[in-house]
Amino acid sequence: MHVFFDTEFTGLTSDPHLLSIGLAADNDATLYLEFTDGWQESACSPWVRQHILPTLGQGEQLTRRAAGQRIFDWLQALDAPLTLLADSDYDTILLAELLQQCGLTHDSSRIQQLAFTGKPQALEFEAAKQRYLASHGFAPHHALSDAAALCAAWQQTMNQI
Fold first, then answer.
1. Tens digits of per-residue pLDDT, 114-141?
2. Is residue 126 part of a domain?
3. 134 in a domain, yes or no?
4. For 37-53, how does the pLDDT look when each residue is reduced to its tens digit (9 = 90+)?
5. Which residues contact 49 (CB under 8 A, 6 or more apart)?
6. What is the pTM of this model?
7. ∠ CA 21-145-68, rounded to 5°
8. Contact 157/7 with Cβ under 8 angstroms?
9. Does position 36 have pLDDT exceeding 50, yes or no?
10. Whole-angstrom Cα distance, residue 105 to residue 100?
11. Average pLDDT, whole number, for the chain?
12. What's the CATH code of the domain at 109?
């Protein structure tokens, strides 16, 4: 089973901090969490303050430790070998660090970044993501919307990986 995930974080820096995470499994299960600790507004880039912070307040709000446990429990409940996929190395690193810091390991899963066979496949995938967001009236840069768009794009264009 595939679980697609996206994170929003304080900025494209060497020390980003999680603000939210969205997960969408290819069986239609979803999870969206917002972090109540581990970050400060002053550490957010101006772009994040303008585009991401206004979207917060719509999900389950948890501490980092509680969020890590909630993600782990949700993954366990899927009861299948899992491949967790994101389209950014920031996302994969931030999720792996969160689970590691909480002392959680999921032996039947792996976290990896989406890989494309070439530029045409990457462009097709990105177009499918944008079509999904537009068809549902979602703006980009909301972790759950982006995770669902990754899942939909995968199903449309890359299910063979």
1. 999 999 999 999 999 999 999 999 988 9
2. no
3. no
4. 999 999 999 999 999 99
5. 41
6. 0.94
7. 15
8. no
9. yes
10. 7
11. 93
12. 3.30.420.10
Q: Into how many domains does the chain fold?
A: 1
Report yes or no: 8 and 142 within 8 Å, Cβ to Cβ.
yes
Domain extent for 76: 2-115
In angstroms, what CA-CA distances link 86 with 40, 50, 92, 147? 24, 23, 6, 8
Phi, psi of 17 (to 5 degrees): -125, 140
pLDDT digits (tens, 9 = 90+) for 66-107: 999 999 999 999 988 899 999 999 999 999 999 988 887 766
Instruction: Assess if residue 61 is contained within a domain.
Output: yes
The token duo for 14 is 């060497």
- The beta-strand segments (E) located in 50-106 are 60-62, 82-86
The tokens describing 31, both together, are 């999870």
Q: Tell me the mean pLDDT in the region 2-16.
A: 96
Alpha carbon distance 82, 84 (integer Å):
6
Q: Is the pLDDT of residue 161 over 60?
A: no
Quick check: is 136 in a domain? no
From the CB of residue 95, how many other CB atoms can be counted at a distance below 10 Å? 21
